[in-house]
Design a protein that fits this description.
By secondary structure, this protein is an alpha/beta fold. It has 19 helices and 27 strands. Helix 2 packs across helix 4 and helix 3 packs across helix 7. Bound molecules: 5'-O-[(R)-(benzoyloxy)(hydroxy)phosphoryl]adenosine (OOB). The site of 5'-O-[(R)-(benzoyloxy)(hydroxy)phosphoryl]adenosine has 19 residues, from helix 10, strand 16, strand 21 and strand 22.
Length: about 550
C-alpha cells in the first residue's frame, strides 16, 4: 500500500479474502470485465452522447497510454476536478489503470481547497475543466502552480494552451503508432493498493484524504448494487457530482457498471434538468441529499414530465424528519431508500422489504455482514441497545487511517482499528441505525459539509475580526445555515462585505456565512473553549425574537 496509508492488519485482510469479500479485482479490471460481458450496451449517457462499455474501456486505455506518455507514473497523485462529464469517468479509469492515485475534488472547490489538496497529497498533476459555470479554472490552476513547484502538469479538458496539456490531444498522441510501441502494456496495479482518495467532510480546518483501495471500493459498490437489486435493465441518474462517494460508488456509477446498467450524467441536480432526463432515458434509480430532494418534491407537484420509470431513490447525507421522508415515495411514485454514508466507508441502507415505518424513520442496516458497528459512551464503553452514543465502526471498506496524518489518526481511531465517526446514533431492536446528531463540529448546509473551523480560520484572517465562532443554525430549506459570531476589531463589516472579503481569498461559495452577529465576547466553557452549545441557544432565542 502507498506509503502514508494504513493497511488493514494482515490477518483481517486474509479473512476478507478467504470470505470472498475482497477478490483482488481492480476497478480497471472491473471495467474490462464489464466491456467483455456487456459489450455494446450503453454504459454512459451525457447530453447527446452515448458511450458503450467497449468504447469506454478502449477510451480509458487510450487515455492511460496518453497520460503515461506524459510522464504520469504509478503512485503519482493527481487532483481531479471535473464536472459530470463522461471524461471524468474515462480519465478516472485511465489513471487507475496506470496505478496513479486520484484525489477527487469537487467542481465548487477554489484555490484554497485545491492548493491544500495539492500540498497534502503531494500531487504532481491537476486535471481541470477550462471553465465551468462561468469560472475560469485555468487561471486558478496557473496561480496554484506558481506556488506549488511539485505540481508538474496541468491537464485541461479542452483546447491546448500555454502551460496546459490538452486531454483530447493527449489521447490522439497515444493513438500514434510510435507512442504505442514505446509505451507497451501497462502493468496491472495491486488491488490491495489505493485507487483514489476521497475527501473527508472535515472536522478541523480543511479536508483530509481518505485512501480507498480497489479491493474495498469494488466490494462496497458491488454490495450496494446488490442491496439496491440493480440489474442490466437499470438506468442510474447521477444527480450529485460524480466525485462524491454517494454518486460514484453507493452504488452510483461504479455499482451500475457491475451489473451492466446505464449511467446518465446530469449537469445539475435541478429538477428542470433532471426530470426531462428521467423521462427521456427511463431512469430507474437515483440518489441525492435531502435539500435536493426538497426541490424535487416541490417541482414534482407541477411538473408534466413522466417520472414513472423511477423505482428507487436513495436519500442521505443529512438528517431528515419523518414529515419529510413521508412525502417522498407518494410524490415521486417510487420507493425511498434511506442512506447513511461517509466517504470514510461505512454505508447503511434501508432495504426494499423493510417495514414502512423503519424506512421512514431509520437509516437501515449496514450493507455488509462484515461491518462492525458499536455505539459507545465517552469512555469507549459499549452502550446497551437503544442508547444514544458515538458510532464507531470498522469493516472491509472502512478506512484504517487518513493519509499522512499519523498523530490525528491516533485520535480518530481506537486501538483496535474502529473509526470514530463523530456521529451520535442509536441502534433499534431490529438492528437499524438512527442518526441523532453529531459530535463533530460540522455544518451540513444543503448537503454540503462545511467545517466550522475552516470558516473561522478565514474570518480570523481578516484584519477587522478579533474572534470568530461559526455554528450551524436550523434552516427550513437548507437544513442548516452558517451563522458567524464575531468579536470585531475596529469596524464591523456588513454581511455582504464580509462575504466578499472571504470570497476573494479563494473559498467556495457554499462556505460563506449566511448570517453574522457581532458580540462583545464569545461564551466559553470551563476549559476555556468557545461554548458552541451556548451559541446555539443564543442563535435560537435570536431567531425567535
Ligand atoms: C456522505 O458522506 P460525507 O463523507 O460527505 O459525510 C459523512 C457525514 C456522516 O458522518 C454524518 O455526519 C452525515 O454525513 N450523514 C448523515 C446521513 N448520512 C451522512 N447524517 C444524518 N443522516 C444521514 N442519513 O454524506 C454520504 C456518503 C455516501 C452516501 C451517502 C452520504
Amino acid at each position: 500500500m502507498l506509503a502514508g496509508c494504513t493497511p488493514w492488519p494482515s490477518d483481517v485482510a486474509q479473512r476478507y479474502r478467504e470470505q470472498g469479500i475482497w477478490r483482488g479485482e481492480t476497478l480497471g479490471a472491473l471495467l474490462r470485465g464489464a466491456a467483455r460481458r456487456y459489450g455494446s450496451a450503453t454504459a454512459l449517457v451525457h447530453g447527446g452522447r452515448r458511450i458503450s462499455y467497449v468504447e469506454l474501456d478502449q477510451w480509458a486505455d487510450r487515455l492511460a497510454a496518453g497520460f503515461a506518455a506524459h510522464g504520469v507514473r504509478e503512485n503519482d497523485r493527481l487532483v481531479v476536478q471535473l464536472p459530470n462529464v463522461p471524461e471524468f469517468v474515462a480519465i478516472a479509469f485511465a489513471l487507475m489503470r496506470i496505478g496513479a492515485k486520484l484525489v477527487f475534488s469537487l467542481p465548487a472547490h477554489r484555490s484554497t481547497e485545491i492548493s491544500h489538496l495539492v500540498e497534502l497529497s503531494g500531487a504532481t498533476g491537476y486535471v481541470l475543466p477550462e471553465t465551468h459555470r462561468g469560472f475560469d479554472h485555468r487561471e486558478m490552476a496557473l496561480e496554484i502552480q506558481a506556488s506549488a513547484p511539485e505540481l508538474r502538469t496541468l491537464f485541461v479538458l479542452g483546447e491546448k494552451s500555454e502551460g496546459f496539456v490538452s486531454v483530447s490531444e493527449l489521447e490522439l498522441a497515444s493513438a500514434e503508432p510510435e507512442s504505442k510501441s514505446t509505451s507497451g502494456p501497462l502493468p496491472e496495479p495491486d488491488a490491495a493498493d489505493v485507487a483514489f482518495f476521497l475527501l473527508s467532510g472535515g472536522t478541523t480546518a480543511l479536508p483530509k484524504l481518505i485512501p480507498r483501495t480497489h479491493d474495498d471500493y469494488v466490494y462496497q459498490s458491488r454490495r450496494a448494487a446488490q442491496v439496491c437489486e440493480l440489474t442490466s435493465d437499470d438506468t442510474y441518474l447521477a444527480v450529485l457530482p460524480v466525485e462524491f462517494n454517494f454518486a460514484y460508488g453507493c452504488p452510483g456509477v461504479i455499482g451500475t457498471f457491475h451489473t451492466g446498467g446505464t449511467v446518465v450524467l446530469a449537469d445539475t441536480p435541478n429538477p428542470l434538468d433532471c426530470f426531462p432526463l428521467i423521462e427521456q432515458h427511463s431512469v430507474t434509480v437515483t440518489s441525492m441529499v435531502p435539500s435536493i430532494m426538497q426541490l424535487w418534491l416541490e417541482a414534482a407537484e407541477w411538473s408534466d414530465d413522466d417520472l414513472s420509470s423511477l423505482r428507487l431513490v436513495q436519500v442521505g447525507g443529512a438528517r431528515m424528519t419523518r414529515e419529510f421522508t413521508e412525502r417522498i415515495a407518494p410524490t415521486l411514485g417510487c420507493s425511498l431508500q434511506q442512506v447513511f454514508g461517509m466517504a470514510e466507508g461505512l454505508l447503511t441502507f434501508s432495504r426494499p422489504d423493510d417495514p414502512a415505518e423503519s424506512v421512514l424513520t431509520t437509516q437501515g442496516k449496514p450493507i455488509s455482514d462484515a461491518d462492525e458497528l458499536r455505539i459507545v459512551d465517552e469512555d469507549g464503553n459499549v452502550l446497551p441497545t437503544g442508547s444514544i452514543g458515538e458510532l464507531i465502526t470498522r469493516g472491509p471498506y472502512t478506512l484504517r487511517g487518513y493519509y499522512g496524518v499519523p498523530e490525528y489518526n491516533k485520535r480518530a481511531f481506537t486501538e483496535d482499528g474502529f473509526y470514530r465517526t463523530g456521529d451520535l446514533a442509536r441502534l433499534t431492536e431490529d438492528g437499524d441505525l438512527v442518526i441523532e446528531g453529531r459530535i463533530k463540529d460540522m455544518i451540513i448546509r444543503g448537503g454540503d459539509k462545511i467545517s466550522a473551523g475552516e470558516v473561522e480560520d478565514h474570518l480570523l484572517a481578516l484584519p477587522s475580526i478579533a474572534q470568530a465562532a461559526v455554528i450551524g443554525v436550523p434552516d427550513e430549506f437548507l437544513g442548516e445555515r452558517i451563522c458567524a459570531y464575531l468579536v470585531p476589531d475596529g469596524e464591523q463589516l456588513a454581511l455582504a462585505e464580509l462575504k466578499k472579503a472571504i470570497h476573494s481569498r479563494g473559498v467556495a461559495d457554499y462556505k460563506l456565512p449566511d448570517v453574522v452577529r457581532y458580540v462583545l465576547e464569545l461564551p466559553l466553557t470551563p476549559l476555556g473553549k468557545v461554548d458552541k452549545k451556548a451559541l446555539a441557544v443564543m442563535a435560537a432565542s435570536e431567531q425567535e425574537g
